[in-house]
Design brief:
By secondary structure, the chain is mostly helical. The chain contains six helices and five strands; from the N terminus they run αββααββααβα. One of its GO terms (molecular function) is metal ion binding.
C-alpha cells in the first residue's frame, strides 16, 4: 500500500475509534490497525456487544461511529474517498431498520414497514407494500438520521483534531493499537516515547 493511502486509512480508522470512545452509548475500541486484511485497508474493531435490547441512543451512536471514518477524511483533507462504502451500507441499514422495523420514527409512527417473515432467500428484511408518500417519508427520515449522526461526528472530530493528528502518527509507526493503547493516547499519554507532535498538514489525497 502506498504511504499516502496508509495515512488516509489511518485517519479513517482513528475517526471511527474516536467516535467509539467518546460517544456515550457506543461500544469502546478493542483494536485498530492499518495492516490490510482482505479487501480492507485497515479496520477498527469495537468491543463485543452482548446487549439483548438496544436503545435508540445506542443505535444513533452506532450510526455515528460508522460514519466517523468518512467524516475524518473530510475534516483532515477537505475531500473524501471511496473507502467508506461498507460504512455507509451499515449506517443506512441501521437507520432504515429504526424507521421501518423498530418504530423509532416520530414521523412514521409505531408501525412495521418491513418484515423477515417468508424471506427464505435471505438478504435481510423485506419492505412491505407502502404508498409512494410513505416511501418518500421513510427515505427522508433515514436521511435525517444519517445527517444528524454525521454532524455529530464532524463536530467531535473538529474538537479533538489535534489529538487525532497525534494518534495517527503513532498508529502509522506501530501499525496496530489495542483499545487500552488508544485510550492512553486519547487521554494525552504516551506508549514508548515522548508525545508526538501533530506534525505538518497531511499531503493531498492520492489520485
Amino acid at each position: 500500500m502506498r504511504e499516502a493511502d496508509r495515512k488516509v486509512t489511518a485517519y479513517h480508522e482513528v475517526g471511527h475509534a474516536l467516535a467509539a470512545q467518546l460517544l456515550p452509548h457506543a461500544n469502546r475500541v478493542a483494536k485498530l490497525t492499518v495492516v490490510p486484511r482482505g479487501r480492507a485497508a485497515g479496520f477498527m474493531m469495537p468491543d463485543a456487544d452482548d446487549r439483548l435490547h438496544v436503545t435508540r441512543p445506542a443505535l444513533e451512536d452506532m450510526i455515528a461511529v460508522a460514519l466517523a471514518g468518512r467524516a475524518a477524511e473530510e475534516v483532515v483533507y477537505g475531500e473524501v474517498t471511496t473507502g467508506a462504502q461498507n460504512d455507509f451500507q451499515q449506517a443506512t441499514g441501521l437507520a432504515r431498520r429504526m424507521v421501518t422495523e423498530w418504530g423509532m420514527s416520530g414521523r412514521i409512527g409505531k408501525v412495521a414497514l418491513a418484515t423477515d417473515e417468508g424471506n427464505f432467500l435471505g438478504g435481510g428484511p423485506q419492505a412491505l407494500p407502502m404508498s409512494e408518500a410513505t416511501a418518500f417519508a421513510v427515505d427522508e427520515e433515514v436521511s435525517a438520521l444519517m445527517d444528524r449522526a454525521y454532524a455529530r461526528v464532524l463536530a467531535l472530530l473538529g474538537e479533538h483534531l489535534g489529538r487525532v493528528h497525534e494518534i495517527v502518527e503513532v498508529l502509522m509507526r506501530r501499525e496496530t493499537l489495542s483499545g487500552d493503547e488508544f485510550s492512553t493516547l486519547l487521554a494525552g499519554g504516551t506508549l514508548d516515547g515522548p508525545p508526538g507532535a501533530a506534525g505538518p498538514a497531511p499531503a493531498p489525497l492520492p489520485v
